[in-house]
Specification:
It comes from Iodobacter ciconiae. Keywords: Lipid-binding. This is DegV family EDD domain-containing protein. The relative contact order is 0.16. Helix 5 packs antiparallel against helix 6 and helix 9 packs parallel to helix 11. The chain folds into two domains: 167 residues, Rossmann fold, CATH 3.40.50; 137 residues, Hypothetical Protein Tm841, Chain: A,domain 3 (2-Layer Sandwich). By secondary structure, it is of the alpha/beta class. The longest helix has 22 residues. The N and C termini lie far apart (46 Å). Strand 6, helix 4 and strand 7 form a beta-alpha-beta unit. The protein is globular, with a radius of gyration of 19 Å. The strands form three sheets. It has a six-stranded mixed sheet, with helices on both faces. A four-stranded parallel sheet has the order 2-1-6-7, with helices on both faces. Strands 4-3-5 form a three-stranded antiparallel sheet, covered by helices on one side.
């Protein structure tokens, strides 16, 4: 059985990983003051977007996901022919309409695919499952990466489904902005109180950075750390400690709002990389997608792991 994997461009994974596993991306359009940018996880275009955003100091962006009709067209024109079964993993539904759009499109796809496959002499039925990853950005990437691993190991649909259900309950994502202005602007626009005005004012004045955790579909501020580089170092050491305690899934994802080489050169990241090698855990580092970037700003860092123990960042 040919099993396909679809996600949206909120998913932070390296481009070479996406290509290797033939993961299909649902693009997201970013509307800014000087036009639009279509985020399809192109590394060069993403870095240019961050560079432009940092130079212009722009904070006012809107994102627009694929419509129900666009998703339906993608599946019926291509995916029902390329695959016999598809798993679609979206950014958490409390943050975007992508899950709802995919769910609505799935109803039409399942009722309309048969003549298309029959014309191509494909006799097997087509199946489609849509899942809310219950997470965002690097943590959404972890869920997708783990499903890609199971597909490559030729796991059955039922095995993959059960694993996704556990992953969505154990994957924990952490975000640290380099600058609070973008995070607060977007949080206010969406009614998110994770970073209030007082926290923003004090944080900006004292260089105190919040660490935002995303877990089971909710976002909360779990720590405040003085200095961005100090905070990132603590975040990597924290992930290393969780790794050594034991993870639910053998993957850690890291994303950066800019050139990932910046993170690669950090000593704490190198320590985490060595720990992952020692424990046979894959460490995936890639560009933070523009959807993440317009929410927490250029230069931000995302990190994710899956653990059956709710991790507490001191």
């Amino acid at each position: 059985m040919r099993i396909g994997l679809v996600t949206d461009s909120c998913c932070d994974l390296p481009r070479d990983f996406l290509d290797q596993h033939q993961i299909v991306i649902l693009p997201i359009t970013i509307h800014g003051y000087d036009g639009t940018f279509i985020d399809s996880r192109d590394p060069v275009a993403t870095r240019n977007f961050y560079r432009h955003q940092a130079e212009a100091g722009v904070t006012n962006f809107e994102s627009e996901p694929f419509s129900v009709e666009q998703i339906r067209e993608l599946f019926l024109s291509r995916l029902v022919l390329e695959f016999d079964s598809v798993f679609c993993l979206t950014v958490m539904q409390s943050r975007s309409q992508i899950f709802n759009h995919c769910t609505q499109a799935a109803r039409a796809i399942i009722t309309e695919y048969r003549p298309i496959r029959e014309q191509a002499n494909l006799t097997k039925p087509f199946t489609l499952r849509v899942f809310d990853s219950a997470n965002i950005f690097a943590a959404q990437g972890l869920v997708v990466a783990e499903v890609a691993r199971l597909i490559s190991q030729q796991a059955s649909n039922s095995e993959i489904t059960k694993y996704i259900e556990r992953l969505t309950q154990t994957t924990q994502g952490f975000l640290m902005p380099a600058d609070l202005s973008q995070l607060r602007h977007q949080a206010r626009r969406k009614g998110d109180k994770s970073v209030g005005f007082l926290s923003y004012a004090l944080g900006s004045a004292l260089d105190i950075k919040p660490v935002v955790r995303v877990y089971r579909g909710e976002t909360t501020s779990v720590a405040r750390i003085h200095g961005f580089h100090n905070g990132v170092e603590k975040l990597f050491l924290f992930a290393q400690a969780q790794l050594e305690r034991g993870l639910f899934a053998p993957t850690i994802c890291v994303s950066y709002g800019g050139d990932p080489a910046v993170v690669e050169n950090m000593p704490a990241y190198q320590k985490l990389k060595q720990a992952c090698k020692n424990h046979d855990v894959q460490l995936l580092l890639g560009e933070m997608g523009t959807t993440a970037g317009v929410n927490i700003g250029p230069g931000g860092v995302g990190l994710a792991f899956a653990s059956e123990i709710e991790a507490v960042l001191d």
